[in-house]
Amino acid sequence: QRRGGEPFAVLYLDLDRFKVVNDSLGHLVGDELLTAVSRRLESCLRRGDVLARLGGDEFAILLKAMSDEQQANAVAFRLQESLSTPFSIGGREVFTSVSIGIALGLTEYGTPGEIMRDADTAMYHAKARGKARHEVFDADMHARVRDRLGLENDLRHAVGANDFEVHYQPIVALATGTCVGFESLVRWKRNGTPVPPDTFIPLAEELGLIEPLGTWVLQQACRTFSRWQQQFPGRLDFITVNVSSRQLVQQNFLNIVEQAVHDAGLQPCDLRLEITETALMDSPQLAASMLRNLRDFGVKIYLDDFGTRAA
Q1: CB 13 within 8 Å of CB 41
Q2: What 3-state DSSP class applies to 311?
């Protein structure tokens, strides 16, 4: 209704780490927190502005008479400041913060859904940049989101078709200068162009694709190393395979490793699994149990990136 009238802005808000509150203190406390948050948000608005809860821990605000970005930014700062002091709920202090995306109604939007989409996109960027902040939508954000969606789709197809390559980096014994093993490294070319591993590996983990991808790499590495052992008997000692934290806590991961070793005709000691310090710290109890089972099977474990996890 205001598209052809006065300028406006839409703010899309999402509470940071609200799931932690629900999981640790219960849903009743979570509901009380949402009610208290809505009251504080409402206290920051002017007459005529509209606050709505969209569902869960997401809110939207329609700001009237927002003629420029600076005004919308000032409101966002005011909202974040209002939530900076703790809430008293059930006799305890509860802290929260909010990530905010801003879309300005200065350009022509065809439907309300379009401006909500852009505000949501800006909020996503605020989350990605560290939370407890706000971002104003621009055209580059939409392009980046579109590119990411294309990358996700292509990665899903690649995992389904096993459209990857495994490269092998020699491991050389310094005392003798001879190659004693190899580290297996997965690589992916998207439409003929290499995609950096630090781009597609985290994305595969986020999309839940790392388990099938990791299983395929493990199987390929074991088969290849078995062939090389036959070609060069007595000269190669081991093959290493990187394992993500999600793989390590798979309930059937031990069976996957045993099957890959047996199908390739290897001995368990031929395989070394490289696990990052992060994988151990994310789920320490599950990881410890799986590592004991792997050790009992005969696989050796390497700890990678030790001491690099941020405090």
Answers
A1: yes
A2: coil
Counted residue by residue, the chain has a size of 311
For the residues 273-288, what does the mean pLDDT come to? 80
Q: With 60 as the cut, is the pLDDT of residue 308 above it?
A: no
3-state secondary structure of 84: coil
14: which strand partners? 58, 99
Looking up tokens 């930014």, which residue turns up?
73
Distance CA 59, CA 14 (A): 6
**Residue 281 near residue 311, CB atoms below 8 Å:** no
Give the lowest-confidence range in 79-88, 201-210, 283-292: 283-292
The pLDDT score that the predictor gives to residue 260 is 97
Distance CA 184, CA 205 (A): 18
Q: Which strands make up the sheet holding 98-104, listed edge to edge?
A: 50-55, 58-64, 8-15, 98-104, 134-136
Q: Where are the beta strands (DSSP E) in 193-299?
A: 193-195, 238-243, 271-276
The 8-class DSSP code of residue 119 comes to H
| pLDDT digit string, tens, across residues 145-165 | 888 889 999 999 999 999 999
Answering whether pTM is above 0.70, one says: no
CA distance 205 to 216: 15
Confirm if 116 and 14 have CB atoms less than 8 A apart. Answer: no
Q: Is the dihedral of CA 227, 230, 236, 237 positive or negative?
A: positive
